[in-house]
Design a protein that fits this description.
Layout (H helix, E strand, L loop, with lengths): L1 H8 L7 E7 L3 H7 L2 E2 L1 H4 L12 E5 L2 E5 L16 H9 L1 E4 L3 H14 L5 E7 H7 L4 E4 L22 E3 L20 E5 L1 E2 L6 E6 L13 E3 L1 H4 L6
Parallel strand pairs: 11-12
Antiparallel strand pairs: 1-6, 2-10, 3-4, 5-9, 6-11, 7-8, 7-9
């Protein structure tokens, strides 16, 4: 069953890899720890309080920058989940994108907001990563942390029920959750993604000098994927 589910999700060529968006300044910490940590592991936030600006924290002596939270209106929430509960759940997970196109949307959005900041995209082998972290994974049909411009016009409300455990994939009949791979917008992994070196396929950033030495052979210029039409 585990093998079958992972095969279904990674079957198409454009879904053979997973992508993570981060700041270049975080790369030394990620490489040194060989792990991607959820933000609550780096800085616990059990009440789901909003970070209104990016924050600098230390993890095992390594500097890590956590992004600010987008504001989520109570209009967008289902009555069964408060904004704080929802944000706390998000903070407990590492976010990966199942296609390059979806991850590039993050790159373009943050590049517009912070034109002087440097960003990177990490590319991972999807099948072994999903298989090894199977019991920690949730799937989301929607951009979980976003705030739609017109919340009253959206077809769903934000709730913790919108996050589907991977072992329930195609078992649960609910319009809130993905039923086919093309409906999977985000892949969320609880707490951490371990042993990154065993899954890492490429590190996209502008300058090879920004890449940790152990990852240098995997560097790819960010310009390869910065164009809205570029494909890896």
């Amino acid at each position: 069953m585990k093998t079958e589910v992972v095969q279904q999700i990674t079957n198409k060529p454009e879904r053979k890899s997973l992508y993570h968006f981060t700041r270049v300044v975080n790369l030394p910490s990620i490489a040194d720890l060989d792990t991607l940590f959820a933000s609550h592991v780096i800085h616990p936030n059990p009440e789901g309080e909003r970070r209104t600006e990016k924050e600098v924290h230390l993890k095992n002596g390594n500097e890590v920058i956590l992004n600010a939270h987008l504001k989520i209106s109570t209009e967008m929430m289902d009555p069964d989940t408060t904004v704080g509960q929802f944000r706390s759940f998000l903070d407990q997970h590492v976010f990966l994108w199942p296609t390059l196109r979806l991850c590039k949307q993050m790159l373009h959005m943050y590049s517009r907001r912070e034109p002087c900041e440097k960003f990177a995209i990490l590319q991972f082998d999807a099948y072994p990563l999903l298989f090894d972290h199977f019991d920690q994974i949730y799937l989301s049909k929607y951009d979980a942390g976003s705030m739609p411009r017109y919340p009253k016009r959206t077809s769903y409300r934000k709730t913790i029920r919108m996050f589907l455990p991977l072992d329930e994939y195609r078992k649960r009949v609910d319009s809130l959750v993905p039923r086919i791979p093309s409906q999977i917008h985000e892949i969320m992994i609880h707490n951490s993604v371990l042993s990154l070196h065993s899954y890492l396929q490429a590190v996209y950033c502008a300058e090879i000098s920004d890449v940790p030495k152990s990852w240098a052979p995997l560097h790819r210029p960010l310009r390869y994927i910065e164009s809205p039409t570029a494909q890896v």
